[in-house]
Amino acid sequence: MVHYRPVSNPPSDEMERMGESETARDEPFRRLVARIDPNARMLRAWTLTGGVSAEVTGLEIALVGGRREKLVVRRHGGRDLARNPGAARDEFALMRVAMAHGLAAPEPVYLDDTCDLFPTPVVVVAFCDGVTVVDPPDIDGYVAQAAVHLPMIHAIPAAPNLAFLPRQDRGWSDRPRDMDEAMREPAVRDALEAAWPLTSRNPEVLLHGDFWPGNLLWRDGELGAVIDWEDARVGDPLADLGNARLEFLWAYGEDAMSAFTDAYLAKTSRDPANLPYWDLCAALRPCGRLGEWGLEAGGERTMRERHAAFVAGTLDRLEGR
C-alpha cells in the first residue's frame, strides 16, 4: 500500500527556504518538470511519508503568470514492477479512465517511462489536498460518503477500456505450513476451499483493491479523493466490499461496518449471496502477519478482537445456510 499524506508537507516558510536549494537529488525532478511544461519552474521537492511499495515525492512548481501548482511523483518499487513491469503505464491509464468517469481520484498529469531520469518509470498526478481522518466527528456522515464512492468505482464495467488490468483471483494463497490458529486460519480456509470456485451473478467491474479509511482523503468534511490504486483489478465487486467491511470494522467498529454495508447495498443492484466468502478472503489477509504490521499493543489487541468477531459471525452465517 502507498499512502501519501498532504499533511506531511514542510511548513510553507520552511519550504521557501528549501525551494531554491541546488542539490543532485532535485535535478531529475527539475528535468521532469521541464518535460511536463517547458515554461514551468520547480520550486521544491519533498518526500511524502507513508510509501511502502512506491517512492512518492511532492513537487511545487511555478507556472507562467506566477500561479503555483503541486504535483505528486510516484515511482513503483521492486515488488510492483516484478508483478507488472508496466505498472506505471497501467496506473496512468487507469487514472485517465477514473477521471473520465468522474471518480474522486488523483488527476493524471504525465507519464515518463524513458527511465533516463530515474531508474524506473514515473507517474505524475495532481496533488490531492486533504487528510485521512482517524476519528471522524460525524461518523454517520463519514460512512455515508464513503459508501457513495465505492459504488461509483464499481459502476465502471470491466471491458473493454480496462483490459490492461489483471482479474481478481480467488483471494487467497495456498495453505502455509504453519497456519495462524489464533486467527482461525484453518477454519477460514476450510470454508473457502469447500465453496470454491464461486458462481457469481455480479458482472465484473473495476475494483479499487484497497478501499479503506487510510486511502480516503477529506477536506472540510467532504471526501475529496480516493488514493492508492496500485492494487486495482477487475472482478466481483463483493471482493472490494468484503475488504472494506473488515477495514471499517477495524477502524470504527461494528456499527460503522454495518452502516457502510447497508448503504453500499442500497445503492447497487449487486447480489450479496457470496459476500460471506469474500469476507473470509479479507479475513485471511492478516493471518500470520498482523504482528508484523508495527501496531501499538492496544491497537493490535482491538484489531484481533474485532477480527475474531468478524470471522465467527461469517462462519455462523455460512453454517446457517
Describe this structure in words.
With 321 residues, the protein is α+β, with helices and mostly antiparallel strands. 40% of the residues lie in helices and 16% in strands. It has ten helices and nine strands. The strands form three sheets. It has a five-stranded antiparallel beta sheet. The chain has a two-stranded antiparallel ribbon with strand order 6-9. α6 (185-195) packs across α9 and α7 crosses α9.
Short description:
The protein has 321 residues and is α+β, with helices and mostly antiparallel strands.
Return the structural class.
alpha+beta
Give the uncertain stretches in residue-range form. 1-21
Strands ordered across the widest β-sheet: 1-2-3-5-4
Total number of helices: 10
In the residues, how many domains can be counted? 2
Find the count of extended strands (DSSP E, 2+ residues).
Answer: 9
Main beta sheet strand tally, sense and closure: 5 strands, antiparallel
Task: Classify the beta-strand content into a percent band.
Answer: 15-25%
Rg calculated over all Cα atoms: 21 Å
Question: What is the averaged pLDDT score?
Answer: 90
The helix/strand series, from N terminus to C terminus, equals HHEEEHHEEHHEEEEHHHH
The portion of residues assigned to helices is 25-40%
Do you know the CATH architecture of the largest domain?
Answer: Alpha-Beta Complex
Shape: globular
Q: What is the rounded distance between the termini?
A: 35 Å
Q: What would CATH call the class of the largest domain?
A: Alpha Beta
What name goes with the CATH superfamily of the largest domain? Aminoglycoside phosphotransferase (APH), C-terminal lobe
CATH topology of the largest domain: Aminoglycoside 3'-phosphotransferase, Chain: A, domain 2
